[in-house]
Amino acid sequence: MFQPLSLFVGLRYVRSRTRKFFVSFITWVSLAGVAVGVAALIVVLSVMNGFEGELRDRLLALSSHARVVATVAEGASAEAGDYGWSQALAVLRADSRVQGVAPYVEIQSLVLRTPEMLPVQLRGIDPALEPSVSAAAAAMVEGRLEDLLSGEDRVILGSVVARLLGVVSGDRVTLLVPGVEQSGAPSPRLREFTVSGIFEVGLHDHDGTLALAHIDDVRALTLDDARVFGLHVKLTDPLAAPAVNRELGARLDRGLGLRDWTQDHANYFRAIRIEKAMMTIILMLIVGVAAFNIVAMLVMVVADKRTDIAILRTFGATPRSVLEIFLTQGLVIGWAGVVLGVLLGVLVATNVGSIVPVLEGTFSFRIMDPSVYYVTQIPAEVRLENVLLIAALALIITAAATVYPALRASRVAPAEALRYE
Q1: Residue of 104, 116, 106, 108 whose CA lies nearest to 176
Q2: What is the CB neighbour count within 10 angstroms for residue 81?
Q3: CB 23 within 8 A of CB 304
Q4: Three-state SS string across the chain, please?
Q5: What is the rounded CA–CA span in Å between residue 111 and residue 118?
Q6: Which of 39, 172, 217, 333 is 20 to 30 A distant from 179 in Cα terms?
Q7: Is 13 within 8 Å of 333 (Cβ atoms)?
Q8: At what angle do helices 319-350 and 266-304 cross, to 10 degrees?
Q9: pLDDT tens-place string over residues 192-226
Q10: What distance in Å separates the CA atoms of residue 283 and residue 92, rounded to the nearest whole number?
Q11: Longest dimension (CA), the chain
Q12: Which pLDDT tens digit goes with each residue over 249-291?
């Protein structure tokens, strides 16, 4: 791109020790500013990626990657075969991307334990098949998933629900399921359940709102309404859920639909994407400020090198050659800062788990207090596409910062610059 003379002189200007201390200081500040901005952006986005992954894992601990639901009228029966449940099972189990399938029934209910009353999602599961689609068995802190037996009216509560109700394993609670008769009159159904266990996954959406019971016991409270019946599906790759959803959904019978976890929890991840975009813009301003420093430094260098530029012009250097000299100087400083920032950012992001405890021990504080947060360690996930995007944006900004001073240098008139020399 550059002629050898332009490259040689530009690199020499970078290496030379200027007599102007302030110009040299601004040069190092510009390089450090670009490096800090790039490193900070990589670290912050990596930590946000880590929290996004942690949130996804906790959401999917008791939620499925996809679920088959009935898109039928109110009051329709959910008996197997009525709306293609057998065909759906066959389609799902025949696909190599499907790791497990399990039926479920889920209804809204109130759990009562005098004097407390809490709204919960009562989910009926098959204890034998549930481990193939969720981490419910691993999340148990009291009791076992196998304790849910058909006809025994046993329930497993989330840790937050159990704490608010003040119950432990062996206590009895009353579940109230709202209902409406065909005439339109309200017809709530009450049944006593025995608490047989408590689970905890570290997310309020599950621990504070969910209760598990045997699918037969819950189904008895629903009058076989097809809208509350479905199939939970676990995929080998949860990130491929949207693509698998579209393909498998087209194979299901009419009256059945397939929803994946990105649709069920869209608000969470949309909020994270917005936060990441805004954080990128804010932190990229640090690189912008450093780029302004590069502009100021090059303008002062051009003013200091007017005589040198004029001499080069009298020896036959073209304005383009002078332009390329100062473009080289600015690009080397800016891009050196970008490379240094990428290396520093990746180093810190990949070792954030070791760095945070050292900082907490040195300054005697906890960043993630266990009494407040479920997540007590700061996770980080370095993604190559994020690093490349940050580096490319920083390179473009620093390259743009060199254009104006280089143009000024190329327009220096030799006669005017040498008039008083």
Answers
A1: 108
A2: 8
A3: yes
A4: CCCHHHHHHHHHHHHCCCCCHHHHHHHHHHHHHHHHHHHHHHHHHHHHHHHHHHHHHHHCCCCCCEEEEECCCCCCECCCCCCCHHHHHHHHHHCCCEEEEEEEEEEEEEEEECCEEEEEEEEEECCCCHHHCCCCCCCEEECCHHHCCCCCCEEEEEHHHHHHHCCCCCCEEEEEECCECCCCCECCEEEEEEEEEEECCCCHHHHCCEEEEEHHHHHCCCCCEHHHEEEEEEECCHHHHHHHHHHHHCCCCCCEEEEEHHHHCHHHHHHHHHHHHHHHHHHHHHHHHHHHHHHHHHHHHHHHCHHHHHHHHHCCCCHHHHHHHHHHHHHHHHHHHHHHHHHHHHHHHHCHHHHHHHHHHHHCCCCCCCCCCCCCCCCCCCCHHHHHHHHHHHHHHHHHHCHHHHHHHHCCCHHHHCCCC
A5: 5
A6: 172
A7: no
A8: 140
A9: 999 999 998 888 778 888 999 999 888 888 866 66
A10: 45
A11: 104
A12: 888 877 788 888 888 877 877 888 888 888 888 888 888 887 8
Contact 232, 64 (CB under 8 A): yes
Q: Amino acid letter at 197? A: G
- Could you identify the residue written with the tokens 């590069």? 294
Looking at residue 5, its amino acid is L
The predicted model scores a pTM of 0.71
CA proximity to 201, closest of 56, 378, 302, 3: 56
**How do the domains of the chain map onto residue ranges?**
4-57+268-417, 64-264
The token pair at 20 is 């102007």
Q: Which two tokens stand for residue 80?
A: 């197997």
- Percent of the chain at pLDDT exceeding 70: 82
First to last CA, the chain: 34
By the 10 Å C-beta count (0-12 exposed, 13-18 middle, 19+ buried), 369 is classed as exposed
Read off the tokens for 339: 């490379």
Residue 12, amino acid: R
Q: What pLDDT is attached to residue 157?
A: 94
Q: Does residue 170 or residue 303 have the better pLDDT?
A: 170
The angle that helices 266-304 and 384-401 make with each other, rounded to 10 degrees, is: 30
User: Cβ atoms within 10 A of the Cβ of 8, count?
Assistant: 13
